[in-house]
Each structure stands twice: as C-alpha cells, then as structure tokens.
Amino acid sequence: MISSDLVLFTLMVVVSVNLARALTALRSLLYIMREAHPLLYQQVDGRDFFTTHGNVVKQFRLYHYIRSREYMHHHDPLFIKKCDKVRGLFILFMNLLGVTLLAAILI
Length: 107
Prior knowledge:
Helix content: over 70%
Order of helices and strands: HHHH
Number of domains: 1
Number of helices: 4
Largest sheet: none
C-alpha cells in the first residue's frame, strides 16, 4: 500500500518542478520583453524583477497584463507565445498547488 507521506512528497516535488518551469519561462519572457515591448519592461521593473529590492506593485502590473491577455494584440508572435506559456504554466502551478493542499487536508 502506498504511504500518504509518499503521495504528499511526490505532489510537492511535482509542484516544485512546475514552479521552477514557470519562473524560468517568466525570466525568458522578461528577456524577450526588453526588445519586443520596452515600455512594459520599464513599467514592470524588468531589470530588478527577480531582486529583493524589486517593486512588487510594478510586478503586479505584469500579472494583470498576462491575466487579462492584453498581449494578444502585440505584433511579435514570439512575445505572444511566451506570454501564453507563462500564463499556462502559472495556471498549472496554481491548480497543482490546490490539489496538493487538498490532499494534505484529506490525508
């Protein structure tokens, strides 16, 4: 029989791997954003996005930009593709996190 600890550990590993994928995709999006959309890059504090002194209010601007799918009207198809990937990975991460928390409560 499978241990409940093993199930929770496996779910946490899967969530951690998907979080790492999402952050890596976000980092590559910021790199592409520097050339494709320089104004947004400045608005979201792209240079200091992953630093400890990064402005959280500016980072939420990128969250709302991706959540509301404002990037669909952009001229660069690579930028649109990266935004879609980041959006999909964060949706996957949040769903996996919810499943893990639900499993932790039920087990």
